[in-house]
Amino acid sequence: MTSTPHHPDLRSQLEAMSTEAFRPELAEIDRMSTLDIARTMNGEDATVAAAVAARLPEIAAAVDAVAARMSRGGRLVYAGAGTAGRLGVLDASECPPTFNTEPGQVVGLIAGGPEAMVTSVEGAEDSAELARADLDALGLTADDTVVGVSASGRTPYAVGAVEHARALGALTVGLACNAGSALAVAAEHGIEVVTGPELITGSTRLKAGTAQKLVLNMFSTITMIRLGKTYGNLMVDVRASNEKLRARSRRIVALATGAGDEEIERALAATDGEVKHAVLALLADVDGPTAARLLEESDGHLRAALAAAKG
């Protein structure tokens, strides 16, 4: 392998990473039956949750810090390349329909831009400058959070994003799948979920990707719970943009209030289809405008609005 001016020791770096380790016991996996390969993969996947469990205190501390900033109007920005970048874009894109977040409140940046979601953009992951430009385009502030995501923990795009964001005073989180990573060191909150060698050597879309998906699920979901986007375990901020979601909205109101179908339809009609407002209108026996005012005064937290309504 020819060295590059930028990374003269990249090969030795990769050889030192647990996610890149070769497993001789799997060297003849291509000769196994399909069922045995599936069993082996499933056994590997079963270890991922335990690797995440070992980092739950760090994850919780980071989430609390993110929620504090988002409650002041800050944004949650994921930055990564390849699989890590795609997972960030996926998580960000699911927040508006699930939690009714504003466009741009949760953002996924992938090295190489939207094109990189479906194709490899040559050299994009190697550019810290590209990360800085992508963040500058967002006009980052101290209330924002940037989460760099990289299985190796050395991807220049992810590390560059975190370093630049930290220099601008934003909260930074580094999510990696190797111990002693540059990404975790660069971030205020370093989270290293060590998933170990992959079934196919270096294919970090497997266990490392699964771990990243689990942690990003926690980041967005728990942050939104902290921001009052749920009532118990109900998605009361769901955006009813299709028939399935409209049916789910009615079901959520029913589960939260125990009201009958006619009452639910009246409440949703009186609150322009806003589930959270309809639940408050029914539980507190108030009209639509009053429900809207109470929720605004409670920063969108339904429990707090209920307590205020009941005096």
Your description of this structure?
- The protein is α/β, with parallel strands linked by helices.
- The chain has 14 helices and 5 strands.
- Helix 4 (56-70) crosses helix 9 (207-226) and helix 11 (261-270) packs across helix 12 (275-284).
- The N and C termini lie far apart (72 Å).
Report a brief summary of the structure.
By secondary structure, this protein is an alpha/beta fold.
List keywords for this structure.
311 residues, 8% strand, 14 helices, globular, 5 strands, single chain, alpha/beta, 5-stranded parallel beta sheet
| Number of strand segments | 5
Distance between the termini: 72 Å
Helix tally equals: 14
SSE order in H/E notation?
Answer: HHHHEHEHEHEHEHHHHHH
- Identify low-pLDDT runs: 1-6
Share of helix among residues?
40-55%
Q: Overall 3D geometry?
A: globular
Q: Going across the major beta sheet, what is the strand order?
A: 2-1-3-4-5
Largest sheet: 5 strands, parallel
Strand percentage: 5-15%
Mean pLDDT score, rounded? Answer: 93
Indicate the structural class.
alpha/beta
Q: Tell me the Rg in angstroms.
A: 22 Å
Give the helices and strands, then pairings.
Elements: H1 10-16, H2 34-45, H3 48-53, H4 56-70, E1 76-80, H5 82-99, E2 106-110, H6 128-136, E3 145-150, H7 156-167, E4 171-176, H8 182-186, E5 189-192, H9 207-226, H10 243-257, H11 261-270, H12 275-284, H13 288-297, H14 302-309
Helix pairs in contact: 4-9, 5-9, 6-7, 10-12, 11-12, 12-13, 12-14, 13-14
